[in-house]
Design goal:
Elements: H1 31-43, H2 61-64
């Protein structure tokens, strides 16, 4: 089974709206590892460093990740190579 990354959303019982939507990318880890990963994503032209939020302490993660109805979460875990 191959993954599709671009194009129409998968068909299903969920309705598709042309309204602007967003995807939240959550990165949790040791400060140095998070900063290194953001820098690497910038080097790949994936994102700008200044577009990330300020570092949040773990106690504020739940507040920062409040979800909208119907949203799901997937977590990608990758080992760091230093």
């Amino acid at each position: 089974m191959s993954a599709k990354f671009f194009g129409q959303p998968p068909m299903g019982d969920r309705s598709f709206s042309a309204a602007r939507r967003s995807v939240k990318i959550l990165m949790i880890g040791q400060p140095d590892d998070v900063e290194l990963t953001i820098a690497r994503l910038y080097q790949c032209d994936f994102c700008r460093v200044e577009d990330w939020s300020r570092p949040l302490p773990f106690s504020q993660i739940q507040q920062a990740t409040s979800k909208e109805p119907g949203e799901i979460m997937r977590i990608y875990v990758r080992s760091m190579t230093l």
